[in-house]
Write a structure and sequence with these properties.
The protein is of the alpha/beta class and 361 residues long. It contains 12 helices and 12 strands. Helices cover 42% and strands 16% of the residues. The strands form 3 sheets. The protein has a 7-stranded parallel beta sheet, sandwiched between helices. Helix 7 packs across helix 9 and helix 9 crosses helix 11.
């Protein structure tokens, strides 16, 4: 049984909270959440595992919360010394491409400088451990397929694909990936890197495509589709991703990279129309089909055409297999948003109401 002491950075965010819920609900791990609580940090995402979002205190003895910036070296040193982790899952990051176009500086600060700060804090702590503890320790960095750039109509990203990032976001994540590998190669820190395709599922902040479309449908607002909607993404249900991260932590070899993808390629237009079709059946719109709300808008600057991941290494070497395909996962996602307005309505009203980002203006 998995009983590690885990620091999970960014666990008030989308993927991080899914991982924290998995660790608490399905393992015996003890989790310290480290999160700055930026606009995308939603502590309510951890309520089901015992966190009080008002006080950040936990009723679960295996979960604790530290509000801190990963760029703060003193705070990170204290976190390592006080909690004494066996492993670090590093998910804290600025993650929205559109926001990186409008304000790249914060992406460089958090994703590059923050990762370097966390690596150095981990290294200092790791050097204090005994031989067996050193060998068992892991620093696991969670990254994106966007570092690889764009694909044509065929082919897949593999762990050997050269990096070719095209947005400030993907460039900052590429830099952080290189830093993690450098700390392994230079200092011997036992690191792991995973690069995932587009995640979707419950508790997804509504600036991203799928939750934005769901909520705009429910509010009767236009559904913005960039360009002609022809850009292709490989979609991965967030709980399948969380299980992959746990598996890599348990069985992955230090210094290795593992790609996580769902083999669920869809154009953006197909995704939007699928959400509309599900909502047509679950919550019909008196005025007509939700698809009638689709509006084509100017494309995102530097918009990569196609992403697709080959997860063969993860599947063959470690035995991972996703539980959801796109059809089952997207229906679960839509149903979750319909049933959990308590979670998204305050975000929609106070943090982000669906305005266009990333025009470069």
């Amino acid at each position: 049984m998995y009983e590690k002491r885990c620091i999970v950075t960014g666990a008030a965010g989308f993927i991080g909270s899914a991982l924290a819920r998995l660790l608490i609900n399905e393992t015996r791990a003890t989790v310290l959440v480290v999160d700055k609580l930026t606009y995308a940090g939603v502590p309510e995402s951890l309520m089901e595992v015992g966190l009080d979002p008002a006080t950040l205190e936990s009723s679960n003895p295996r979960l604790s919360f530290l509000k801190a910036d990963i760029c703060d070296m003193e705070a990170m040193d204290r976190a390592f010394a006080g909690f004494r982790p066996d492993t670090v899952y590093h998910l804290a990051a600025e993650s929205h491409v559109d926001r990186s176009i409008d304000g790249p500086g914060e992406f460089v600060r958090t994703n590059v400088t923050g990762t370097a700060t966390l690596l150095q804090a981990a290294l200092k702590y790791w050097k204090t451990l005994g031989a067996a503890e050193k060998a068992a320790f892991r620093f696991q960095h969670i990254s994106t397929d966007e570092v690889y750039g764009t694909l044509g109509e065929s082919g897949y990203f593999t762990e050997k694909t050269p990096y070719s990032p095209h947005s400030p976001y993907s460039a900052s994540k590429a830099a952080s990936d290189h830093l993690v590998r450098a700390w392994h190669d230079t200092y011997g820190l036992p690191t792991l890197v995973t690069n995932c395709s587009n995640n979707y599922g419950p508790y997804h902040f509504p600036e991203k495509l799928i939750p934005l479309v769901i909520l705009n449908c429910l509010d009767g607002k236009p559904l913005p589709v960039y360009g002609k909607g022809a850009n292709i993404r490989d979609w991965l249900y967030v709980d399948d991703h969380a299980r992959a991260l746990l598996l890599v932590n348990e069985k992955g070899a230090p210094g290795e990279t593992y790609n996580v993808g769902g083999h669920n390629e869809r154009t953006n237009l197909e995704v939007v129309k699928t959400v509309c079709s599900i909502l047509d059946s679950l919550r019909p719109r008196p005025e007509g089909r939700y698809e009638d709300l689709i509006t084509y808008v100017a494309d995102r600057p530097g918009h990569d055409l196609r992403y697709a991941i080959d997860p063969a290494k993860l599947m063959t070497e470690l035995g991972w297999k996703p539980r959801e395909n796109f059809e089952t996962g997207i229906r679960k996602t839509v149903e979750w948003y319909l049933a959990n307005e308590w979670w998204w309505r305050p975000i929609h009203e106070k943090k982000y109401s669906g305005e266009r980002l990333g025009t470069g203006k």
